[in-house]
Amino acid sequence: MKPLKYHPTARREIKAAHAWYVRQSLQAADGFYEELLPALDRIQERPRLYPPHLYGTQRAVLDRYPFSIVYRELLSEIQIVAVAHAKRRPGYWAGRL
After folding, report:
1. Torsion 3-8-61-19 (CA) sign
2. Per-residue model confidence as pLDDT tens digits over 55-81
3. Rounded distance, CA 53 to CA 76, Å?
């Protein structure tokens, strides 16, 4: 199994989303992590599970929260490129590749 490696901005996106949900509701914030973390586990266990996306990436769409995990499988790791809100401009993260 390849390790997950996070782009620094992807980590900040996760923290910012969680912080936003904390301000709304602790239950919503917990729910965000309860959906995000298993999705990251699935990506690590089966990186080809999710369909191709933009610029040679793949994307896992969360069910209950308006976010997608954008990633790409490299030779020795799986790079988490972005945790993108559905309302942001598609491909805004392309410069991270």
Report:
1. positive
2. 999 999 999 999 999 999 999 999 999
3. 20
CATH number 3.90.25.10 given to 4-87? no
Whole-prediction pTM: 0.94
- Domain spans, the chain: 4-87
Pairing, β 58-61 against β 67-73: antiparallel
3-state SS record for 44-91:
HHCCCCCCECHHHCEEEECCCCCEEEEEEECCCCEEEEEEEECCCCCC
- Read off the amino acid at residue 31: G
Find the helix or strand (DSSP H, E) in which 34 lies. Answer: helix 26-45
Question: Is residue 59 within 8 Å of 50, Cβ to Cβ?
Answer: yes
